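To start, one record:
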Amino acid sequence: MGCVDARHVALLRDLLASTPWVERAEDLARGLRRTRTPGGLMLLGTPDDEPWHLAAHLDDEARYADLPQLSPSLVRWEPPPGAPAHLSIGLERLEDARRGNTLFVVNDAPEAPVPLLERVDDARRSGATVLSLDQGDPELASIAHEAVSLRPSGDPVTFEGMQHLVSSAAGHVGDRRRGGLRDRLSRFLDMVSGPRPAD
């Protein structure tokens, strides 16, 4: 998609308005906004692909919307020695995951590597809310509290396009749809008590 600005995202939203993809991006964005405290949102990619671009967009949205909890900690598999503080957050950050934290996992491969799945499962068991954006990975989707899975050859939005939709929606606090009673009650319970740990 090259350089994407707010006009391009708005156009993408308009093009996808008759599909469920905008609503799914908004659902995932709502999950990101439920992070309780600044520093509580962790963003994790695979060892081969760190979601730098998405981290930058979420950081921008956090600033523009005055929602500091949206500014993610980019968790890296092997941060290089001497990296700046915001680029030196390693996997040990996941060991500190707890209720009120959110782990957003971005996997652009058909299957997540086993070490990633193990660390995500551990974070969920510690009480963190797990959100995922993937390309049809059933294992990762089964661990996540909420997942958006794209099929590279069959869906009308690209993986990068969905990242833009999610980050843009995260900065817009006014939800366009309120949902039914069950949806509102679920969001209320998550806000009051945090996510339910896995059994």
About this structure: Helices lie at 6-15, 21-33, 52-65, 92-95, 114-125, 138-143, 159-170, 181-193. The beta strands are 41-44, 73-75, 102-107, 129-134, 146-149. The mean pLDDT is 85. The radius of gyration is 16 Å.
